[in-house]
Amino acid sequence: MMDYEMFRDVFREKLMSHMPDELAGYSLWADRTGKVNETMDALHLVPPDCLPDKLYPTVYLNHVYEEYKKSGDLQGTLELAAFYLAGACREAERKNGRIILQDAPESIVMSLINTEQNREMLGYMPHREFEDLSVIYRYVIDTGNPVESVPVTVEMAEGIGMGEKELFDAAVENTRRLFPPTVELLNDIIVEMFMDGGFSEEAAREMGSAIQTPMYCISNKMSINGAVSMLYGDVIHGVSEQLGSDLYILPLSVHEVMAVQTEGAAAKELAELVEKNNMSKIRLGDRLSNQVYRYDKEQRILSLATDTPNKRLDGRGTGQDRTDGKKQSR
Questions:
Q1: Taking a C-beta distance cutoff of 8 angstroms, is the pair 35, 63 a contact?
Q2: Are 280 and 30 in contact (CB under 8 A)?
Q3: Radius of gyration of the chain (CA)
Q4: d(CA 219, CA 230)
Q5: Which of 22, 107, 262, 290 is the most exposed place for a label (fewest CB within 10 A)?
Q6: What is the SS3 assignment for 50?
Q7: How far is 246 from 270, CA to CA, in rounded Å?
Q8: Considering only CA atoms, which of 145, 174, 180 is closest in space to residue 162?
Q9: Does residue 176 have a pLDDT over 60?
């Protein structure tokens, strides 16, 4: 079986020969592409008249290699990738037809990612930093299920004619409108889970009541990129008012965070739990942070409560200091 480097070279050389005749004029463009929390070897299928502001189908060789290792069948892997790209090409044409830059101010939303883990990707995306996190922007194509969106790059932002501040102002309003924030008592969530699993309501509520410390899950109605809801002052303050306490905010993933009262809890121990959860249960692309945050109820300020050694999310620690303040990048 080929190692990754050999597979990458052979795959790139042979893939186009497996593409359908209708895509004969297309070519492959290879680069290192940033996805949330990881950078991958990518192959983009582009037409002869490739334009910079369009979407083109992509396969990630790191993922394809994992499939190849399972089967050991290079021919089958090539055929499957070609079949996928042909279908993705038609889908990209559909999406390109729906990206109307004039309508962008109504379609820009925001999400949170980890700054240290995504420095390379952030180099070509408008963003603003908040503690160890960064707000990035996405252009929403469709809010259906699944949600379809594309990241806003510096190049796209220039095409739209919006600077970072304009993107942020639009995204704050649009994100709340398109993906309204939600706050759910964790006990209620557990009750629903047990009821969905076939337990009676009485039995499910008994299990939910076993949780002594109130815990709230903060996300949005779509449960997608909902961690950004913790930046809404009224949402997080409402939880602190409900509990009558300052809050510790635990980043469960890019999709949701958990809020607990500070009394009787130690931030360092909570951060250890967060890191353990990240490394054992959350896939790399969904991890947000190994830190814990604190919301000061009186001052209405959200800030880092911990400074754990492992700033990165892939298990490789760094010696760099934490991000300080709320910087902006255009």
A1: no
A2: no
A3: 22
A4: 8
A5: 22
A6: coil
A7: 15
A8: 174
A9: yes
Residue 138: strand, helix, or coil = strand
Cα–Cα distance for residue pair 131/317, rounded to 1 Å: 18
* Global pTM value: 0.83
CA 162 to chain centroid, in Å, comes to 22
Q: Provide the 8-state DSSP code for 206.
A: H
| Residue 146 CB coordination number (10 Å) | 9
Peptide linkage before 180 cis (omega within 30 of 0)? no
Q: What is the pLDDT of residues 292-324, one digit of tens each?
A: 999 999 999 999 999 988 888 998 754 443 333
Closest CA to 287 of 115, 33, 114, 110: 114
Residue with tokens 């109820």: 297
- Residue 258: name the closest of 207, 211, 198, 204 by CA: 211
Q: Where are the domains of the chain?
A: 4-98, 101-178, 181-319
Alpha-carbon distance 1 to 72, whole Å? 6
Residue 192 neighbours by CB distance under 10 Å: 14
CA-nearest of 87, 198, 220, 80 to 147 is 220
Q: Which residue type sits at 180? A: P
Which residues have C-beta within 8 Å of that of residue 98, sequence separation ≥ 6?
A: 141, 142
